[in-house]
Design goal:
The complex is a heterodimer of chains A (165) and B (160).
Chain A: H1 2-33, H2 36-52, H3 62-80, H4 100-116, H5 119-130, H6 135-142, H7 146-164
Helix pairs in contact in A: 1-2, 1-3, 2-3, 3-6, 4-7, 5-6, 5-7, 6-7
Chain B: H1 2-14, H2 19-33, H3 40-58, E1 122-124, E2 131-135, E3 142-146
Antiparallel strand pairs in B: 1-2, 2-3
Classes of the chains: A mainly alpha (165), B alpha+beta (160).
Chain lengths: 165, 160
């Protein structure tokens, strides 16, 4: 009975952590993978890993752990997926147009372009520019130096400009 | 161009995943981590109780033995020194004391075997001395033995 209560308490605490992190985990996975369906699978895997390590996890560093796990799970999943084809750009749509429909289309193109980036550059770009984390935090999550993060982000942006020009 | 790229990245950052997707992920995760309710246990408990009752009724009952009456234990009086037997002076030897013989063991009871009742012919007196009436086992059969019957000899031809 005590074990059952303990399990219930554990599940309740985990549910709180899940609700407070689900949005950023799913969003990060979505940007890293470019597909919402794949992102849902990845987010589920992340939270199951979180549940598995829940009792050993230091809640003060839970954010970094969750982001790191999300990146790793997405990278593994991206490697298992079939490589995407080349980006299809419409040459008749100038990049300078700002209509809502075109902006939406550009977003979709940008998503696909991000998917083509090398995984480390993609992770650095998503965490720094989309999740808007500080460079030091991104460096901690990815296990690299701040300078490396800045370099990877710059390289990623350069490629995106080239592909989307 | 950089301005456009930054704006596009910011628009991606502002776009949250749909609430349905969040709910689906949450549901999938919680389904796997919530402790199982084990609903089958609620069916198992009465089933086990019924099975226990059935077994209890099916088992042969041992004969009920009356409760033992409490045994009364006599309170022993405090130990007192036993009186010494009176001393007798040694008398002159008289006849040797015969030790009592051990009682003979009782004869072994043998069961009498009842044999089948055999017929004992009885010779009854008859009015005529020439006949002897013999009672047979069957009351309807009367054997009369003629004393004047022809003499039976061993010689052939003499029996008439």
């Amino acid at each position: 009975m005590a074990a059952w209560i303990s399990a219930n308490e554990r599940a309740a605490a985990f549910e709180d952590l899940l609700r407070s992190n689900e949005k950023r985990v799913l969003r990060t996975a979505w940007r890293l993978l470019g597909s919402l369906e794949d992102a849902k699978d990845a987010a589920q895997e992340v939270f199951l890993k979180l549940y598995k390590h829940f009792e050993r996890l230091d809640l003060s560093s839970a954010d970094a752990w969750i982001y790191r796990t999300t990146v790793n799970v997405c990278m593994d999943q991206h490697r298992r997926r079939r490589p995407e084809g080349d980006l299809e750009f419409d040459p008749s749509a100038p990049a300078t147009q700002q209509s809502g429909l075109e902006l939406d289309e550009r977003k979709r193109r940008l998503e696909r372009a991000i998917r083509r980036l090398p995984e480390k550059e993609r992770a650095a770009l998503v965490l720094r520019e989309i999740e808007e984390l500080e460079t030091a935090k991104v460096a901690e999550i990815l296990g690299v130096t701040d300078a490396t993060v800045r370099s990877q982000v710059a390289s990623a942006k350069s490629k995106l400009k080239e592909w989307l020009a | 161009m950089t301005d456009w790229l930054d704006k596009s990245l910011q628009s991606l950052a502002a776009e949250d995943p749909p609430a349905e997707a969040l709910a689906e992920v949450r549901s999938r995760v919680l389904d796997q981590v919530r402790p199982k309710r084990r609903a089958w246990l609620w069916y198992l408990v009465p089933a086990a109780a019924a099975a226990s009752l059935a077994i209890w009724f099916a088992l042969p009952r041992p004969a009920v033995t009356p409760a033992r009456q409490p045994v009364e234990v006599a309170v022993q009086a405090p130990a007192t020194p036993a009186p010494e037997p009176p001393r007798t002076e040694p008398s002159a030897p008289s006849e040797p004391v015969r030790r009592p013989r051990p009682a003979r063991p009782a004869p072994i009871q043998t069961a009498r075997i009842e044999t089948a009742k055999t017929f004992q012919p009885r010779i009854l007196p008859t009015g005529s001395p020439d006949f002897v009436q013999i009672e047979s086992g069957d009351p309807n059969v009367l054997i009369l033995w003629s004393m004047n019957s022809p003499k039976i000899t061993d010689q052939p031809g003499e029996n008439k």
